[in-house]
Each structure stands twice: as structure tokens, then as C-alpha cells.
Amino acid sequence: MAALWRSLRLVAPMWNRSTRGIHHLGGAVDPESNQKKRRTMLQYLSDYFYDVEFLRGYFFQNEMVKVHQKNRSFAYLGETYGPNNAGAFFILKQGGAVKFRDKEWIRPDKYGHFSQEFWNFSEVPVEAVDASDCAINYEGLENLHLLKELQSLSLQRCPHVDDWCLSRLYPLADSLQELSLAGCPRISERGLGCLYHLQNLRWLDISDLPSVSNPGLTQILVEEMLPNCNVVGVNLAEGLKIGPEEQPRDTDRPVPA
Fold first, then answer.
1. What does pTM read for this prediction?
2. Please, which residues have CB within 8 angstroms of residue 171's CB and are 6 or more apart in sequence?
3. What percent of the chain has pLDDT over 70?
């Protein structure tokens, strides 16, 4: 962060001498302006943000602002439309899908549009949520707490779901029976340990978790922690790592003196 501010101080004098700020980059170009002003946005930014690290940080901060905005709380909608509709609206805005009890799945189309029929289901509980590939983070999970009868939840390949997020699933402990965490890059063994709250789980997918160093051993520990749950996703024959001292010795070869 300190480096970011140092870079900002370096570019500030140059930025202040500009006759056009960043908010005007998308505006119309004066036909009489010189060739320099006709360059692309990226070229324009490169002139001012000559520090590559600063430019990368600038775009990263913009992306984080978007993620934060997507994960704002919709609990206020519950007062008018009911908690299930408020939670469902959050998931649909994220690009996920929801299933109300005895209803068909509701999914957004490729443009992000979805049926508004669910607003009529204020008395119908949401029983399943598919949030695969969505940008849900720790803050956004608060919206799932509104779904008191949620039975199935898929968080597959969610890039912002981490160990802290798993610690925030405990309010769903009474109802949640199925959970998929497959392909989440930021979940480690420590986060999986937080699932001990979810004793009603009957099915759990922990496949393809790159931050888990020993998948086979981790699955065994999770199965002991959740004895009534079918834990899937790891081939135990391949997932158990053996240390050097535990490697089988080839008895057909003579031991070097």
C-alpha cells in the first residue's frame, strides 16, 4: 500500500497539469485536437501511470470495488418481499440460480436477465442455490443467512470464497444437507475444519482444492469430523501423500553399503 501511495504522489503533478481527468476519457474527441489526444484509453493511462505496478494496483482496486458492490446486503428487501425473496435476488444478481420448494429452477440468461415471477413466492422457502463461479465473498454470505430452509448449496469455483467464508456458514447448520466447494482456489485445510458446525450435512464435495496440501488425509479428517456425511472428491489411493521415510523399500535390490 505504501508503494501505491508513493506512485500516486509521483504521478499527481503530471495528472494535475492535464486538461482532462479520467472521468472524461470516454467523451467525444474534438476534431481539431492533435494526434496525441486521439490515442486509446490504455495509451493515455500509460502516459500518466508510468509505474506498471501502480497501474496494476489501480485496476485491482477497481475490481475489488466492483466485487464489494456486488456483495452488498439485500436484507432490507426482506421487510417488503420476505427473506427468501431477498436472498434469492442476491443470488440471481450474482449470476447464480435458485430453486424455491416445488418450483422450477430460476436462472439468469446470458444478459443477466431473469424471470420476476419469484417475487410472488414470498411464502415459499428457497431449498437450493447454485452459486457456481459467482463472485461471492465473506460479506455477501450474509445474504444466504436469510434462507432459513436452504438444503443444497453449490459454491463451485467461486474465486473469492476462502477459509473465512466457510466460518460464516454456521447459521445454515440446521437446514443445510448438501454443499459443494469443488474448485475453490482459496480454501485450505483450515477452512474445512470450520465445517464441523454443519452436522446435518449428508453430502460434501471437496474436489480440486489447490490450496489443500494433502487431499487424501484431509478427506479422512473431514469424514471423522462429519461422520454422517458422504465426503467426495478425492481418490484416496492417489490423494495420500507418503513422506520419504514412509516410502516402500524395494527388497529385491541390495541395500548400498
1. 0.69
2. 145
3. 65
